[in-house]
């Protein structure tokens, strides 16, 4: 993994950053916007700051940084392209697989009841003291209970299932545990958030704290909240997982990145999720 670069690369990094930020302009979030799904379900997109985010004046969902057309797309389930993945996830929930010949529904019943609030608490420390993302829990059920093969972390089946599961927590506040057994992971994630990576010497905070609201080329920098994940990215024409987005961010610093599902990304996921506590889970959002 490529971490902090030696001092002799600083001049190169500075030149790269200057080129990247050339023409950057300020484009603050639209604080007059209000996310109401189908005119019925209100989603909290602003929340007070606290000691977890001492460098922010207020927590903002990434939805507030999007253009009106993208915001309207997310506010209408019929127009939201992520709903196709949600429907596929609902089918997978009812599909029996593996040597046990069981489906998710056979054990967990109605997802609307049994999975309510699960996404809001992810990632979460399991019974063995290990921090797991929702994908870990899904694959554990598949291999240990269903006798089925694991799904690829950002594969179509997994992203459809996580999209479906996230919908069961839509409108519920992010509520990850960061104390007790979760504390060491949270601290690891916080350290990663402020660590500079790659030839460009950029950390998560470089973009999502110090430069929130700025435009880098066509990209409007938000606070990097993950309450809307998994998300449908228009540029990818598909569902993007949290760890896929992490990988892309680190890759953009011109560094070798961590693997999806790695301990490092799970710790980072916990810390970034905690930065959004008070915001609502958006189920499946739409982003550029």
TrEMBL record:
Coiled coil location: none
Keyword Signal listed: yes
UniProt entry tagged with the keyword DNA-binding: no
UniProt EC number: 2.8.5.2
UniProt keyword terms in alphabetical order: Electron transport, Heme, Iron, Metal-binding, Periplasm, Signal, Transferase, Transport
Main location as per UniProt: periplasm
Catalyzed reaction equations: S-sulfanyl-L-cysteinyl-[SoxY protein] + thiosulfate + 2 Fe(III)-[cytochrome c] = S-(2-sulfodisulfanyl)-L-cysteinyl-[SoxY protein] + 2 Fe(II)-[cytochrome c] + 2 H(+); L-cysteinyl-[SoxY protein] + thiosulfate + 2 Fe(III)-[cytochrome c] = S-sulfosulfanyl-L-cysteinyl-[SoxY protein] + 2 Fe(II)-[cytochrome c] + 2 H(+)
Signal peptide: 1-27
Limits of the Cytochrome c domain: 88-174
Pfam families: SoxA-TsdA_cyt-c
Domain of life of the organism encoding this protein: Bacteria
Subcellular localization(s) per the UniProt record: Periplasm
Enzyme class (EC, first level): transferase
Assembly and binders: Heterodimer of SoxA and SoxX.
Family: Belongs to the SoxA family.
Name of the protein in its database record: SoxAX cytochrome complex subunit A
Organism: Pararhodobacter zhoushanensis
Organism phylogeny: Bacteria, Pseudomonadati, Pseudomonadota, Alphaproteobacteria, Rhodobacterales
